[in-house]
Amino acid sequence: MKFLLTTSSRHGSTDEIGAAIAKELRVAGIDVDQAHPEDVTTVEGYDAFILGSAVYMTKWTPEAVAFTERFRDELAAHPVWAFSVGLSGLPKGEIADPNRIGPVLLLIEPEDHVTFPGRFAPTELSLRERSIARLGGASEGDFRDWDSVRQWGRAIATTVLARA
């Protein structure tokens, strides 16, 4: 089984989460390629996909959305898992809108979709991004839950290996 794991990240947090998931799959003996969605020219040769995107203003990045549109038919014919990264200021377990990227996911019907808290580091953001984040009540800090990320990666590996 060969996976393609795409991550669309503006400031690196989503890429780091994707790398942790890929590591769990590799530990389980699963072959994984990791790429940014805008760099993928073909999905031929992949048996399954994991798509991850940062969430800004309730939406996946344009690059992640374009990937799902570009490869819609291929994705629909294979197992797909999806994760979103954002909502860094919300306490654990209080995701305000789990359907925030629903229209994108309806195109690909993933096996599972999870939202992981992200990181809010104002020094890495533009003035516009900082202003929007502060207006939205984001708190500065790294809220990523690495145990949950690794657990989700292991759960995907367990599911895939049970089907083999």
Q: Can you tell me about this structure?
A:
By secondary structure, the protein is of the alpha/beta class. 38% of the residues lie in helices and 24% in strands. The protein is built from six helices and eight strands, in the order E-H-E-E-E-H-H-E-H-E-E-H-E-H. Strands 1, 2, 3, 4, 5 and 6 form a six-stranded mixed beta sheet that branches. Strand 3 and strand 4 form a beta hairpin. Helix 1 packs across helix 6. The radius of gyration is 15 Å and the shape is globular. The protein starts with a strand and ends with a helix.
Cα(first) to Cα(last) distance is 8 Å
Fraction of helical residues: 25-40%
Specify the overall morphology: globular
Order of helices and strands: EHEEEHHEHEEHEH
Average pLDDT rating: 85
Question: Approximately what portion of the residues adopt beta-strand conformation?
Answer: 15-25%
- The tally of helices reads 6
The number of E-state strands comes to 8
Instruction: Return the structural class.
Output: alpha/beta
- Biggest sheet record: 6 strands, mixed
Write down the Rg: 15 Å
SSE map:
Elements: E1 2-8, H1 13-27, E2 31-35, E3 48-56, E4 59-60, H2 62-70, H3 72-76, E5 80-86, H4 102-108, E6 112-117, E7 119-120, H5 127-135, E8 141-142, H6 146-163
Parallel strand pairs: 1-2, 1-3, 3-5, 5-6
Antiparallel strand pairs: 3-4, 7-8
